[in-house]
Specification:
Blueprint (H helix, E strand, L loop, with lengths): L1 E7 L7 H11 L5 E5 L18 H12 L2 E5 L9 H13 L6 E6 L7 H13 L3 E2 L5 E2 L16 H19 L8 H5 L22
Helix pairs in contact: 3-4
C-alpha cells in the first residue's frame, strides 16, 4: 500500500487549497492511502541544527518518512510561499527528510495568481533533493463555491486531475531509484589536471601543444 502525504499551505479553516487536498483523501484510489498533514500551524519557528528537535517537528519528519510521496497545494502571500509552509520546508530541508522523495504540486488558482509561490516551492524542494514530478504538477482553477458542506470540492475536473496526480505519484514511488553517480565521476571532467611536484617527469615528455 502506497502512502502519500498531502501538505497544504493554507492555514484558514475555509482554505480552498486544503479543501482540494481533503478531496484527494476522500477520492483516493484503493491502492493508496492519502493522509492530510494537519500540524502546519503548530510547528515552532525553524532554528538551524536545533537539538533536540521539537516534538512537533519530530512528528512531521516521521510522517514524511512513512510516506512514499508528497503532494503540496499552497496559496501565494506577499509574492511568495506562506511563511508557515516555508517554515515547514526549512525544517525538512535541514533534516534531509525530502531526499529522493517524489513530490508534486496541485494549483487551484488561476494562472498568474501563484507563480511566485510555486517557484519558491520548487526551489525549496530542489534544495531538499526531492524528486519533483513535473508531469504530475497540475493546475485546476477552482471557485470557492465548488466546496460543499463537508469541506470537499465537487468539481469533476478536479477529481480527474487528482486521480492522475495520485496515480503518477504511486508509479514514481514504486519505480526503482536511479543509481547515484559518484561525485568524483560527475565532476572530475571539470577539474584541471594538477601535476604533483614530487613526481618525476618522464624522460622525453613534453606538454601538449
Amino acid at each position: 500500500m502506497t502512502r502519500i502525504l498531502l501538505i497544504t499551505g493554507g492555514t484558514s479553516e475555509g482554505s480552498l487549497h486544503t479543501a482540494a487536498l481533503r478531496t484527494a483523501v476522500r477520492f483516493a484510489p484503493a491502492d493508496l492511502t492519502a493522509t492530510l498533514y494537519d500540524g502546519l500551524r503548530g510547528l515552532p519557528a525553524f532554528v538551524p541544527g536545533e537539538q533536540p528537535v521539537p516534538e512537533a517537528v519530530g512528528r512531521l519528519r516521521d510522517e514524511i518518512a512513512a510516506a512514499q510521496a508528497v503532494l503540496f497545494s499552497t496559496p501565494e502571500y506577499a509574492g511568495s510561499l506562506p511563511g508557515s509552509l516555508k517554515n515547514l520546508l526549512d525544517w525538512l530541508v535541514d533534516g534531509g527528510d525530502l531526499h529522493g522523495k517524489p513530490a508534486a504540486w496541485l494549483s487551484v488558482a488561476a494562472p498568474g495568481e501563484d507563480e511566485s509561490a510555486l517557484t519558491a516551492l520548487q526551489t525549496a524542494l530542489s534544495f531538499g533533493n526531492a524528486r519533483l514530478l513535473r508531469p504530475a504538477c497540475i493546475r485546476v482553477p477552482l471557485d470557492p463555491a465548488a466546496v460543499d458542506g463537508q469541506g470537499t470540492v465537487t468539481d469533476p475536473q478536479l477529481h480527474r486531475a487528482l486521480e492522475d496526480i495520485l496515480q503518477a505519484l504511486v508509479r514514481s514511488a514504486a519505480a526503482p531509484r536511479p543509481r547515484s553517480q559518484p561525485s568524483w565521476q560527475a565532476y572530475s571532467s571539470v577539474f584541471p589536471v594538477v601535476m604533483r611536484r614530487d613526481a618525476a617527469t618522464p624522460r622525453g615528455w613534453r606538454p601538449p601543444s
